[in-house]
């Protein structure tokens, strides 16, 4: 085809297509679809995560039975609920912080920054998508744990999803902050991994004995989740103040993490190290 023919064809295409700005709903749909494709096309990684989580739970359960015996049995339900929330938290936190770290290493971070949405909204939606995937894998882990330990727990789906989801949102904020620091300082993986062990302390914090621990990530949500799954308390049976604290803590930590991420990426751009690695 001649140059004149090509020009005419491009002109007719340009004339027939009206560019439209993508919406956040379309962005969310595409990010969720991308996460689904990664899950389907690379199932070995997801299955490996489930196996590793169950392996460590097996060590905890069978090792604890040999050492503590009856004492472990008495607190087994609490351990199962706490481990379920821990797998959720680690999955949400590491997915978003590692994802941002990978973007830095691959050199694709600047592409996200230049999108019409900005990098922070894209990263937030990717975090939400990974949270959905983590919920699915953690549900499998929970089912296997209940079968192994022969523990009878109530799983009111609505209550568990709302309470556990809001609890993990605060961790998502920590993941955002960690991702922002990664953009600035690059190689800090060891420090980020250390925080995952801190989740164990937060989940086991006595939220109803010490009032101030309610303001920490995971602590209050862990206590509510224990009541929902062990005592059978439904969402509408919690005190309004308990639910307000749960929502408030999730919103505050997510907001703080988002602000830290924004400030860190702006500073990285000013220093000219955004795409460096």
Structure commentary:
- The chain crosses the membrane at residues 42-63, 75-96, 131-149, 155-184, 191-208, 243-261.
- This is ABC transporter permease.
- It comes from Halosimplex litoreum.
- By secondary structure, the chain is mainly α.
- It has one domain.
- Helix content is 79%, strand content 0%.
- The radius of gyration is 22 Å and the shape is globular.
Q: What is the element layout, followed by pairings?
A:
Elements: H1 3-16, H2 24-41, H3 43-68, H4 70-74, H5 76-106, H6 109-113, H7 119-149, H8 157-185, H9 189-203, H10 219-230, H11 240-271
Describe the structure using short key phrases.
277 residues; mainly alpha; transmembrane; 11 helices; membrane; transmembrane helix
SS-based class: mainly alpha
Number of strands: 0
Distance between the termini: 45 Å
Helix content: over 70%
Unreliable runs: 1-6
Largest sheet properties: none
Provide a short characterization of the protein structure.
The chain has 277 residues and is an all-alpha fold.
């Amino acid at each position: 085809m001649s140059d004149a023919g090509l020009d005419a064809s491009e002109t007719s295409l340009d004339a027939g297509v009206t560019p439209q700005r993508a919406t956040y709903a379309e962005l969310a749909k595409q990010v969720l679809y991308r996460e689904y494709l990664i899950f389907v096309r690379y199932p070995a990684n997801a299955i490996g995560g489930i196996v590793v989580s169950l392996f460590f739970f097996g060590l905890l359960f069978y090792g604890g039975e040999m050492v503590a015996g009856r004492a472990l049995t008495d607190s087994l339900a609490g351990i199962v609920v706490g481990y379920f929330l821990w797998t959720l938290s680690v999955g949400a936190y590491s997915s978003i912080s590692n994802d941002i770290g990978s973007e830095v290493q691959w050199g694709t971070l600047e592409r996200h920054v230049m999108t019409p949405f900005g990098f922070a909204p894209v990263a937030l939606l990717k975090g939400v998508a990974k949270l959905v995937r983590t919920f699915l894998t953690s549900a499998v882990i929970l089912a296997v744990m209940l079968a192994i330990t022969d523990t009878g727990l109530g799983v009111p789906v609505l209550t568990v999803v709302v309470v556990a989801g809001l609890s993990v949102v605060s961790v998502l904020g920590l993941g955002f902050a960690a991702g922002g620091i990664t953009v600035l300082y690059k190689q800090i993986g060891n420090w980020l991994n250390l925080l995952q062990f801190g989740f164990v302390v937060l989940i086991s914090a006595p939220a109803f004995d010490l009032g101030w621990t309610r303001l920490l990530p995971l602590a209050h949500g862990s206590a509510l989740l224990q009541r929902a799954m062990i005592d059978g308390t439904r969402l509408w049976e919690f005190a309004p103040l308990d639910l307000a604290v749960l929502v408030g803590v999730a919103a505050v930590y997510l907001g703080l993490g988002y602000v830290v991420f924004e400030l860190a990426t702006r500073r990285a751009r000013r220093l000219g190290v955004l795409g460096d690695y």
